[in-house]
Amino acid sequence: MAESDRIAVLGAGNWGTTLAYILSQRGYRIGLWEYREDLARDLAALRENRIYLPGVILPPEVDVTPSLGQALQKAAVCLFALPSQSLREACQQAAPFITPHQLVISCVKGLEHHTRLRMSQVIEEVLGRQKIRLAVLSGPNIAGEIARGMPATSVAAALDPNDALAVQRIFHSKNFRIYTSGDVVGVELGGALKNIIAIASGMVDGLGLGANTKGALITRGLAEIIRLGTALGANQETFYGLSGLGDLVTTCMSRQSRNWNVGYRLGQGERWDDIQRSLTMVAEGVPTAESALRLAEDEGIEMPISRAVYQIIFENKDPRQAMEELMTREAKPE
Amino acid sequence: MAESDRIAVLGAGNWGTTLAYILSQRGYRIGLWEYREDLARDLAALRENRIYLPGVILPPEVDVTPSLGQALQKAAVCLFALPSQSLREACQQAAPFITPHQLVISCVKGLEHHTRLRMSQVIEEVLGRQKIRLAVLSGPNIAGEIARGMPATSVAAALDPNDALAVQRIFHSKNFRIYTSGDVVGVELGGALKNIIAIASGMVDGLGLGANTKGALITRGLAEIIRLGTALGANQETFYGLSGLGDLVTTCMSRQSRNWNVGYRLGQGERWDDIQRSLTMVAEGVPTAESALRLAEDEGIEMPISRAVYQIIFENKDPRQAMEELMTREAKPE
Description:
2 copies of one chain form a homodimer.
Chain A: E1 6-10, H1 14-25, E2 29-33, H2 37-46, E3 48-49, E4 53-57, E5 62-65, H3 68-72, E6 75-80, H4 87-94, E7 103-106, H5 119-127, E8 133-138, H6 143-147, E9 152-157, H7 161-171, E10 176-181, H8 184-206, H9 210-231, H10 242-253, H11 258-267, H12 272-278, H13 285-299, H14 304-314, H15 319-327
Parallel strand pairs in A: 1-2, 1-6, 2-5, 6-7, 7-8, 9-10
Antiparallel strand pairs in A: 3-4, 8-9
Helix pairs in contact in A: 4-5, 8-9, 8-10, 8-11, 8-13, 8-14, 13-14, 14-15
């Protein structure tokens, strides 16, 4: 695509706004869709997303609109950057404006709650598998750092290598290096499942259990991600790359991670109900924990960390006791 | 072995002192060897290692001595917990007091500089391969956390499974969980090579490059550890476990890590010569970087992160430029 082409970014949260901003800097014209009319109007006028991305000023090339038709008009590319549980509805509403020539890119990390589908599966189900060019973008991508031009990497995955290369061409820059993959399942599951482990990591920090425990937890977290991921058809190697291990480590380390923060607060003794009320952004790891556990049950797979996170959030299990149980599972060969 | 048996801990640095302390808590009598007579005398009198492990009081069961003969007298187990470059000499001096019935355990993470040997290879070379029972202990083990009773895991590796199980029995407790492995090469190399990546991680933090960059660096760091490790005979899976990925993540995250700290200061603009003068403990990653690069050259393997660390330390390469070069290597499939 030519740089003069238009890109629709659906979702003006912290990731969508960041993507709109960095793509506008690369010379694209952006249609940024925000479904709440008042927020769209404010963002269009102020040029700053004070809730989700304060300090970043959107240039005139970013056209903020509450109209999907306007955002997608003449767009060569359609990026989804919404909370996972809002994707299906947005996709249904966007469907009339999406054409087979457009490249559709999911930038959402999660699993749909009641169906347990990956995000690209939801898009395929809504738009029709044969009718669209579809790719996903996932990696160690704390939005605020990328918006500030700090170096980062990510992975573009698609079944058709040309679509992955197209995503790479759109995003690749000096400070945002895009690698390609054919393993859509692995790249999406890495991005979705690491949020559960990030919650557990936050708990370790909130409980003051230290770096030794956190290193062990991340190691075992990756192992349980791989157990489920490979059972669902992903390539094991994908999880050792940037979209797996890389994203996992970044999210477990960064205090800017929403999921880490939820875990930290749980570790500090807050209850999920209270935390939830105070959140301005969705912590994807919470619904993902439930979906992942159901998938694991279907596959007959053990996911002890995900189970602990689920029990702490939804069954008021004590975080310290849960972490102690995780750390004191029977000694055996590694 | 009975808990009344005696264990010799050779080396009263922060790890040796920690091991002596936790083993004494498990009921063993400890001979703790410190080669500097004045330090041994102070430690014996004060019962606190104010330089390396302040705040931890050694009980009377820990007998601190500058005499190897005394430390090893009637010892069923001999632990080495010294800087890697001091191991050979200490081992040579200890050799007359080590018997074939003793279990020798290396707790040292490094490579001998001029020979590029792993620590257990040095011990074997000095003591004679056939004459000893030999195991290694390595994992995500920030000493200060373990001394304070915070939960941690580690891996005991030996060629003879009985020796690995013996190490497990000696150390395994509620808060220090020991797993066994037969891959001595992999466990030792994971522990040694991660220190190089920890220096690079510290640089990322010192340069303020953010969590996205750090996640990418750790991912690629593990990949280059695995390239060298498998070429040297290690099992790839070992590096995905606690002694590989686990130790790597812990060391790259913890501000208590000496190697991370060296990197951080380099990233902040200090020169190695100045940093070195101020260190009270050895940063193992520095000599290991050189040894690893030489081994990689022999094997025809690329280790770009280790090379960057080496060039920054020994050739005054600019850390920012080196990190930029690492992050902007050519885009390609992952």
